[in-house]
Amino acid sequence: MEKNRRQFLKRLASGLALPQFARVDCPGAAAVSQDNEAASQPYFRTRGVVLVPDDLSWRDWPERVHRAGLTTIGLHHGVSPKRVADFILSDNGQRFLGDCQRLNLQVEYELHAVRELLPRDLFAKNPQFFRMNETGERTPDANLCVHSSEALNIAAEGAVALAKTLRPTTHRYFYWGDDAKSWCHCPHCRGWSESDQALRLENRLLAALRRFDARARLAHLAYSNTLWPPKRIKAEPGIFLEYAPIHRRYDVPYSQQAGLEAKDTLDALDANLEIFGRETAQVLEYWLDVSRFSKWKKPAIKLPWHENVFAADLDSYGARGIRHVTSFAVYIDADYVGRFGEPRELAGYGEKLRRWRSAN
Fold first, then answer.
1. Which homologous superfamily is 42-355 in?
2. What stretch of H or E contains 112?
3. Contact in structure between 317 and 281 (CB atoms under 8 Å)
4. 0.85 exceeded by the pTM?
5. Which residues pair with 173 in a beta bridge?
6. Helix locations, the chain, DSSP H
7. Most distant CA pair in the chain, distance
8. 50, 74 Cβ separation under 8 angstroms
9. Which of helix, strand or coil describes residue 196?
C-alpha cells in the first residue's frame, strides 16, 4: 500500500501533459489564431478555493469545483501541516487526489508552517533558534529568530521534507509564518519589520525547495502583521505575492473601503504590488469563507453572499493586473450541506471569475 501511494504521488507531481499543437507555417495566421485563443481564455488563470481536510467530508467538492469552472483546490490547516500530510496519505486523501487528477484540477497546500518546520522540542537545548519576545525572553510559542542561520537551515530542511509528501501540482508552495503571531525582537531582529523577517525566511526556504524541485516558487503572505511590504530584504526570483485582507469588510466593495476606520485597505495591496510585481501575484480572499463569517465557531452560519461586492472586487483586482484569485471556503462540509443544501454560491463565484474580462 505504501509503495502504491508513493508511486501515485510521484505520478501526480509530474503534472498533466500539455497538448501538442500542430505546426502553423503562416506567421500571420498564427498570430491571429493566438490572439483569438488568448481572448477566449479566462483572464484569471488561477480560480480556486481553499479548504481544510474536514471540509472534504462533503465528497462532492472536486466535482463541484470542476463544474464551477475553477482550476485549483488548496488544502489548509490553521496550525498543523502534519494534519494535512496525514490526510493526504490516508485512503480518503488518495481518493481526493485521484478525483482532482481525473478532473484536471490543480492541488496546492496553503499552510501556517513555521512551528513545525522548526520543531518546538529543540527549544530546551537551543533557545537561540527561537524568537525573543518584547520582554527580552526567548520563547518557542511561534515563528523563529531569522538571524539564527542554524534555525533557518533546519526550517529549510523541514520544508523539503514536507514537500516530499505535499507536492503541489503547480510547483507553487505556501509555507507561511504562524498565524498572525509575532516575530523576533532580539537585538539583531528588532529593527526589522515582521514582513522583512518573513521574507528572509522565505528566501532561505525557496533556495532549499529549488534543490528538490527546480520549478518551485514560494509565496510571501501579506496578511495581518505582515500585510505591508518589506523594506530591507529583497525577494529572490521565484518569490511571489499572496495577499490576504482578512480584516476588510464583505458587505461593501473593497474599493469603497477607505479612511481611518477601514482595515486592510487596497493601499496595502498596491504597496505590495510595487515590490513583488503583478503577473504572479495572488489574492487569497474570504468571500466564501463560512468559518470567518461564523467567527471560527461551529455550528456554522449560512454563507452571507453579496454578489455585487464580489463582482466589484474582481474589477478592483483585475484592473491591477492580478491573474490569480482564490478564496477560503472553510466549514462548507457535509454537515453544512446537510443543513443548508449545496452551496449554490460556488457556481456564481466560478462563473464570474471565468467570464471576467479587462476593459482595456
1. Glycosidases (3.20.20.80)
2. strand 106-112
3. no
4. yes
5. 218
6. 2-13, 27-40, 61-67, 81-89, 91-102, 114-117, 149-163, 194-212, 266-276, 290-293, 307-319, 334-340, 345-355
7. 70
8. yes
9. helix
- Predicted local confidence at residue 359, as pLDDT: 81
Q: How far is CA 144 from the centre of its chain?
A: 21
Cα 243 to chain centroid distance, Å, stands at: 9
C-alpha grid cell, residue 32 = 491571429
pLDDT tens figures, 64-82: 999 999 999 999 998 999 9
CA angle (113 as vertex; 68, 234 as ends), nearest 5 = 95
Query: Which among 329, 360, 345, 346 is positioned nearest to 50, based on CA atoms?
Result: 329
Cell numbers at 161, concatenated: 521534507
Residues 216 and 248 sit within 8 Å (Cβ to Cβ): no
Instruction: Check the CA dihedral 95-75-142-176 and report its sign.
Output: positive
How far is Cα 286 from Cα 251, in angstroms, rounded to an integer? Answer: 12
Q: Kindly state the percentage of the chain with pLDDT values over 70.
A: 89
Tell me the CA distances in angstroms from 218 to 14, 36, 210, 322, one per residue in order: 18, 32, 10, 17
Q: What is the pLDDT of residue 205?
A: 99
Please give the distance of CA 147 from its chain centroid, rounded to a whole number: 26
For residue 36, what is its C-alpha cell?
483569438
Residues 287-316, mean pLDDT to the nearest whole number? 99
Whether the bond into 42 is cis, omega within 30 of 0: no
Between 3-17, 62-76, 207-221, the lowest mean confidence (pLDDT) is in 3-17
**Quick one: which of 66, 157, 171 has its CA closest to 109?**
171
